[in-house]
Amino acid sequence: MAVKRYSIRIEEELLNKLHFVADYEGRSVNHQILVLIRHCVEQHEKQYGKME
Fold first, then answer.
1. Is residue 1 assigned to a domain?
2. Residues spanned by the domain of 24
3. Is 29 helix (H, G, I), strand (E, B) or coil?
4. Who is most buried in 26, 32, 42, 45, counting CB within 10 A?
5. What is the tens place of the pLDDT at every residue in 15-40?
6. How far apart are CA 15 and CA 9, in angstroms?
7. Interatomic CA distance for residues 31 and 52, integer angstroms
């Protein structure tokens, strides 16, 4: 599996809140974002079926 980089624009206030949540969960911000993305994909697949 290849690992890709992807940059996003995010408002400072929202980024600060993301840092807070990640710290609370004991994760880095990068790992927290991956957790959120995986959750989003899981929910989509539950509703619409597996993606290839």
1. no
2. 12-48
3. helix
4. 32
5. 999 999 999 999 999 999 999 999 99
6. 10
7. 23
Amino acid (one-letter) located at 20: F
- The pLDDT, as a whole number, for residue 12 is 98
The residues near 24 (Cβ < 8 Å, ≥ 6 apart) are: none
pLDDT for 22: 98
Do 4 and 12 form a contact (C-beta atoms < 8 A)?
Answer: no
**Position 3 in a domain:** no
Using CA atoms, how far apart are residues 43 and 32, in angstroms rounded to an integer? Answer: 17
pLDDT at 1: 82
The pLDDT score that the predictor gives to residue 51 is 95
Number of domains in the chain: 1
In degrees, to the nearest 5, what angle opens at C-alpha 15 toward C-alphas 25 and 26?
15
